Amino acid sequence: MNKKFKLVFMGTPDFALPTLKRLHETEHTISLVVTQPDRPKGRGRKITAPPVKRVANELGYAILQPVSIKTDAFAHKLGKLKPDFLIVVSYGHIIPERILAVPRFGAINLHASLLPKFRGAAPIQWAIINREQETGVTTMFIDGGLDTGDILLYDKLEINPDDTSTTLYERLAVMGANLMIKTLNALDLGSVTPRPQRRDIATYAPLLKSEDGHINWKMAADDLDAFIRGVTPWPGAFTYCGQKRLKIFKARPALLKFDEIPGTVIKGFSDELRVATGKGALSILEIQGASGKRLSIKDFMQGARIGPGTVLF
User: Fold this and answer.
1) Is residue 106 within 8 Å of residue 141, measured between CB atoms?
2) Partners of 108 in the beta sheet?
3) Tell me: the pLDDT tens digits for 267-284?
């Protein structure tokens, strides 16, 4: 690498941390780290700094946490820094065009999918829910659309049969950090040519809301297994047994013959919980009931009264 770039880094959650740390190890200069404001978190609603702020503090960077990046003040602040690139990793808001115009060479985004598939806020979750065999990370120049900019580089990753959005998130974050370094090196050498996305094959991965974790037992068992893994840990898969809400963390399809309608508990051993689905049955392995503790199904069933014929909904 011949050129040291002057960068402004924009990111917020844990997913952005490997990229920030890898950039810190290079000869590039990070003039400023921009992240979301501190916000209440958890049951106690304690004001908590975003992960990027915590790590940026440890690394000694100047930090800015604007309530809005659409203001004249923010644009003026960035303009004074004269960055070569904005590096954006899960910042949390669409970057306005006036901000995209500030860096000398453009704004680069790291996205956790193989664009143009799964544009949007939740690409990792939807890749698992849709039972994709592979996914990956993509670097692209940001334009005014939602993940629609020209692609720079990408890297592929196989989705394992037991992957949850947590495990896939962790692997993609590290892969993405390495890809960002490769991208900056390639731009320095002039060895990469941005290419437009094929908009005709684009798919979307909208943000998941808390109610989106509600299990639909009419789905096939294989699809429900993928759904549960995809929404773990957020928003979490849940169902109801009477007035009680049950949160399901882990399950597997079961080869059973039955006549029960979807959602019905099927007869089995006392330490099992097997439920009829739209196609096949689902064996619940880890669950959380009203006690608030995540338990193996064996431990849960010792105190639960969910007999055969009970209908979950």
Assistant:
1) yes
2) 87, 141
3) 988 889 999 999 999 999
Task: Please tell me the pTM assigned to this model.
Answer: 0.95
Which domains occur in the chain, in start order?
6-201 (3.40.50.170), 210-303 (3.10.25.10)
Give dist(CA 308, CA 171) in Å, integer: 40
282/220 Cα distance (integer angstroms): 9
pLDDT digits (tens, 9 = 90+) for 3-61: 799 999 999 999 999 999 999 999 999 999 999 999 998 778 899 999 999 999 999 99
